[in-house]
Amino acid sequence: MEFLIFDFIFSGIGWLFLWVKFRNKKKIEIALINEYNGKYKLAGEAIMLNSVGITLGILIGGFLIVVLIRSVYDACN
Predict the structure, then answer these.
(1) Which one of 42, 70, 71, 73 is CB 3.0 to 4.6 Å from 36, fit for a cystine?
(2) How far apart are CA 29 and CA 38, in angstroms?
């Protein structure tokens, strides 16, 4: 019962993602069955997981670049 709200949110995100990606009801049904086991929730979870992973990757990469630049700057001075 506690995850019902997340299921609802991910289902909405998955539905929106598939409609934006395919824009054809028949193609959406085929993709939903083949790639996401017939559940919009799984499509929403996949797109959110990818988004979070990309964001974290960019943040960690930026942090490492700043640390490297700072260490080179401190070594030169």
Answers:
(1) 42
(2) 8
